[in-house]
């Protein structure tokens, strides 16, 4: 399977943020803590955010170092690998404080990068394929 273009990854993150915000609309922390289905849905979207962030190429990550790329990846890894330690209070705090500025920040990257194709990174498979001919 070929990797998705990084722009689609950013769009996936923006859409996941919008869904999280819809899921918790009208809730306060107490309501969120009492609603396991919403917690599960939100954590699923955080996993998607982290996985999508993992597929953003290094040249974009380096260029936009103010974006919390690593914390997005870390949250995904924690939710997947240390699932028993996920604290709904931390998730709520992240929703309230970290997500609101993130979607506009990512949208600005999409707009500032224009539509030009980016350089394609050579993978190990490409090198193996060339050597096989």
- How many β strands by DSSP? 0
The portion of residues forming beta strands comes to under 5%
> How would you spell out the order of helices and strands?
HHHHHHH
Radius of gyration: 17 Å
Shape: globular
Could you explain how this protein is built, in words?
- The relative contact order is 0.15.
- The chain is globular.
- It is mostly helical and 133 residues long.
- The longest helix is centred in the C-terminal third of the chain and has 25 residues.
- It has one domain.
- Helix content is 73%, strand content 0%.
- The chain is built from 7 helices and no strands.
Summarize the structure.
By secondary structure, the chain is mainly α. Helix content is 73%, strand content 0%. The protein has one domain.
Question: What topology emerges from the helices and strands here?
Answer:
Elements: H1 6-24, H2 29-34, H3 36-54, H4 58-63, H5 69-81, H6 88-112, H7 124-132
Helix pairs in contact: 1-3, 1-6, 3-5
Keywords summarizing the entry:
133 residues, 7 helices, globular, disordered C terminus
């Amino acid at each position: 399977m070929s990797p998705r273009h990084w722009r689609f990854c950013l769009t996936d993150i923006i859409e996941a943020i919008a869904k999280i915000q819809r899921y918790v609309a009208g809730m306060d922390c107490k309501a969120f803590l009492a609603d396991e289905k919403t917690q599960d849905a939100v954590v699923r979207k955080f996993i998607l955010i982290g996985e999508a962030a993992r597929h953003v190429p290094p040249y974009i990550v380096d260029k936009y170092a103010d974006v919390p790329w690593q914390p997005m990846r870390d949250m995904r890894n924690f939710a997947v690998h240390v699932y028993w330690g996920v604290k709904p209070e931390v998730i709520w705090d992240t929703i309230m404080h970290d997500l609101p500025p993130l979607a506009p920040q990512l949208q600005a990257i999409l707009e500032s990068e224009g539509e030009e194709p980016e350089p394609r990174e050579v993978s190990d498979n490409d090198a193996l394929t060339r050597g096989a001919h």
